[in-house]
Structures are given as C-alpha cells and as structure tokens.
C-alpha cells in the first residue's frame, strides 16, 4: 500500500477536510498518476452530502482528473513515466458483459466501478477519487491527453465533456439540427461548445439572466430565459434535440413542448428528488421521446478528448486552492460557477 492524502467528507453535513488514506500498490496493469488538477462536478457535491443516499464515508470525491504518470506496472505498454493523462468517472468494469464488449463500460451489466465511492475489486475496499495527491488506475481506464490542451482546462472534459459529447453523438447532432442545452453550468457550457463545434444551431436555456452574454460567447446562437413563458412559446415545436443538464427537479413539460415531432429530450442532470412527471399528452401527440444518458465509454471518451484537441475545445474554468472547496460547493448551489471549478492540486498540503 502507498500512503496518499487528499480531502474527504466524513459525513453528509461535515465540510471537506484533509484526510490520509492508502492506495493499492500498482499491479501489473496499473498506472499510478500524480494528480495536477481535478475538476469539481456537481456529482461530487451530491455524493459528499449523500444526496443520492449511497455514500460510503469517508468519501474522497473527484472524477475529472489530469496528471502525470509516476509509476507503471510491469505489463503496461501504452503509458510512459511523465506522460500527461486523464481519469474520468470510472476506474474499472467487468470487461466481459455485452456492454463492456461494445466499449460501453458505463452501462456494464455487472456494475462499473466509480472513481470514488465504488467497490474496489483489488482491495475489497472503496475507491477514493481525485481530490488527492495521486491515484492508481487500471490502464484500460486511463486516457491520453494531448499536449495541445491546457491541462487544467482539460480536466472537466473527463466528466462534463464526455457526459455531453456522448448523447450529442448518440442522437447524431450535427448541421441542420436545432439543439437546446438546458442549464449553463459545468455540463451545460460544455454542451454548448460541443454542439456548436458539431455544427448544430444551439439555443441555451438558462434561469440566470446574467449568463446570456457568456452563453453567446461560448457558442450559443440564441439564449432563452426559461422562466419567461413568452420567450419559451416562441420556440414551440421547433427542436430536434434537447440536452437537459439541470441538477434540480423542475417542470419538464416546459421543454418537451418545444420538441418537434419525433424530437428527443435527454436528461443528464441527476437531482436528488424526482422531476414532477411530465404530461403524457406532451409525448404522445408528437411522438416525442424523453431519454437519459450516463457519461460515456472509454473509447468514446478518448474520441472526445481527441475531438477537443483538434477543435481547441476546453472548459472555461476558475482555478481554486483545495481549501476553497467548501466555498466552491456553496457557490455551485447558487449557480454561481463560471463555468467549472478546478482544484490546483499543488495547493494540497502534504
Ligand atoms: P452545475 O455546474 O451546478 O450546473 C447545473 C446548472 O443547472 C446550473 O448552473 C443552473 O444553470 C441550472 N440549475 C440549477 N438549479 C436549477 C433550478 N432549480 N432550476 C433550473 N435550473 C437550475 O452542475 P453540473 O456539474 O453541470 O452537473 C449537473 C447535473 O448533472 C448534476 O445533477 C450532476 O450530478 C449530473 N451529472 C450527470 C452525469 C451523467 O452521466 N448523467 C454526469 C455528470 C454530472 P442556469 O444558471 O443556467 O439556469
Ligand atoms: Zn461528474
């Protein structure tokens, strides 16, 4: 075992605080990474506060990890010491089920292993995430990060990037499509950038009038204040696809009624309590679809990172020191994030 350190929550109400723990020694197929940067996802907050009811304490959140390889197991061939790499939301899966065989490890039929709060097969313990000095990960779950990308601003691609890229690709978003992105937070701002880069006409829906100018700069063609019924009504029956990233329960009908016949709204936001059920007629009258999507597989995550390197896409970030993490959570709850906090891990006390 190797001694690691980071920041953990020890109970739902406790602020995150310094925490020491052990990582497994890298096995033959493992890569050890010294973490440079870790993005702050709303899922980290949901988990730290046990909002999904499944947190095992103490929990070390963080699944938008960028760092450099500091050790490799004897069988590792793809990664070299010093290489810039990333780790996203998963660190393992069964590798034998039909989903894993298709490169869709996030839908592993035996359950994927989350980067934190997941059952670690090798030790029988639980996984600890990226708010830490280092991490040990099976090579299959390590991603290559191009030197063309700023490493701090690339970190959020590992969750916010892939969680928006994957559904945009699955529903074949591209030129000639009118696409809505709901919520301009970490996921939403990546959704705007990626949908724009894929050639779609992008409309951003926000509850925050102060974000309109930013959304247009990020690549939205139009911005709609979703609480303004008159503005919403102008877009009725006009969208091919809507990606909803909102982290709180809200009225889905307001958005479903904006879809064209056969249009789809995909939910990626994961609130702690359910959305009110939408009206069935909103679905059946125009054969509309309501769907969900979970992060993305490893192959697709690498494809997304390469797409971002090619198109010069990273996240708009606010770099913070690790002792600012609790304030960052409070600001995230007020939708006051522009547009992803990233922890500079050099601020972590040894
Ligand atoms: P975030 O940065 O906090 O952004 C969420 C945005 O939703 C806010 O900036 C805000 O945008 C909007 N919003 C928040 N509360 C709202 C409310 N009451 N009504 C309407 N809009 C509201 O969060 P994030 O990191 O992007 O994560 C978003 C959600 O996705 C979280 O639930 C997270 O757990 C989940 N998630 C899911 C996956 C997946 O695989 N499906 C992966 C990662 C994260 P405006 O100010 O523009 O309205
Ligand atoms: Zn996340």
Task: List the topology elements.
Layout: E1 2-8, E2 17-23, E3 30-39, H1 42-48, E4 65-72, E5 84-87, E6 90-92, H2 98-101, E7 113-114, E8 134-138, E9 143-144, H3 151-154, H4 160-170, E10 178-182, H5 186-197, E11 201-206, H6 212-218, E12 222-225, H7 229-233, E13 239-244, H8 253-256, E14 259-267, H9 280-284, E15 289-292, H10 298-311, E16 317-320, H11 325-333, E17 340-344
Parallel strand pairs: 10-11, 10-13, 11-12, 13-14, 14-15, 16-17
Antiparallel strand pairs: 1-2, 3-4, 3-8, 3-17, 4-5, 5-9, 6-7
Bound molecules: NADP nicotinamide-adenine-dinucleotide phosphate (NAP) and zinc ion (ZN).
Notable features of this structure?
single chain; 350 residues; alpha/beta; 7-stranded mixed beta sheet; 6-stranded parallel beta sheet; 11 helices; 17 strands; 26% strand; globular; binds NADP nicotinamide-adenine-dinucleotide phosphate; binds zinc ion
Low-confidence stretches: none
Helix-strand pattern: EEEHEEEHEEEHHEHEHEHEHEHEHEHE
Distance between the termini: 17 Å
Give the cofactors and ligands. NADP nicotinamide-adenine-dinucleotide phosphate, zinc ion
Question: C-alpha Rg, in Å?
Answer: 20 Å
Which structural class best describes the helix and strand composition?
alpha/beta
**Number of strand elements:** 17
Mean pLDDT: 97
Helix content estimate: 10-25%
Largest sheet: 7 strands, mixed
Give the overall shape: globular
* Count, helices: 11
Strand residues, percent: 25-35%
């Amino acid at each position: 075992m190797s001694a690691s350190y980071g920041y953990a929550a020890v109970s739902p109400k406790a602020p995150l605080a310094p925490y020491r723990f052990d990582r497994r020694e890298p096995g033959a197929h493992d890569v050890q990474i010294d973490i440079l940067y870790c993005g702050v996802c709303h899922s980290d907050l949901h988990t730290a506060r046990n909002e999904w009811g499944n947190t095992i304490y103490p929990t070390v959140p963080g699944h938008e990890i960028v760092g450099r390889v500091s050790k490799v197991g004897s069988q590792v061939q793809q990664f070299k010491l010093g290489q810039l790499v990333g780790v996203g939301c998963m660190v393992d899966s069964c590798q034998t089920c039909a989903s894993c065989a298709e490169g869709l490890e996030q839908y592993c039929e035996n359950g994927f292993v989350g980067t934190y709060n997941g059952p670690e097969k090798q030790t029988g313990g639980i996984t600890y995430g990226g708010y830490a000095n280092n991490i040990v990960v099976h090579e299959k779950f390590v991603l290559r990060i191009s030197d063309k990308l700023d490493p701090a601003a690339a970190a959020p691609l590992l969750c916010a990037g892939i969680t928006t890229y994957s559904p945009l690709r699955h529903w074949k978003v591209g030129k000639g499509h009118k696409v809505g992105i709901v919520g301009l937070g970490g996921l939403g701002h990546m959704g705007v950038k990626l949908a724009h880069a894929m050639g779609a006409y992008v409309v951003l829906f926000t509850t925050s009038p102060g974000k309109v100018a930013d959304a247009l700069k990020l690549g939205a063609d139009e911005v709609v204040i979703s609480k303004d019924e008159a503005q919403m009504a102008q877009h009725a029956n006009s969208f091919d696809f809507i990606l909803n990233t909102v982290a709180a329960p809200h009225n889905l009908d307001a958005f479903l009624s904006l879809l064209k016949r056969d249009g789809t709204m995909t939910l990626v936001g994961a609130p702690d309590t359910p959305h009110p059920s939408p009206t069935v007629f909103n679905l059946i009258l125009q054969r509309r679809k309501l769907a969900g999507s979970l992060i993305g597989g490893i192959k697709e995550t690498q494809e997304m990172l390469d797409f971002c390197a090619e198109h010069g896409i990273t996240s708009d970030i606010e770099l913070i020191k690790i002792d600012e993490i609790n304030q960052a959570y409070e600001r995230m709850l007020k939708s006051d994030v522009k547009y992803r906090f990233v922890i500079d891990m050099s601020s972590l006390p040894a």
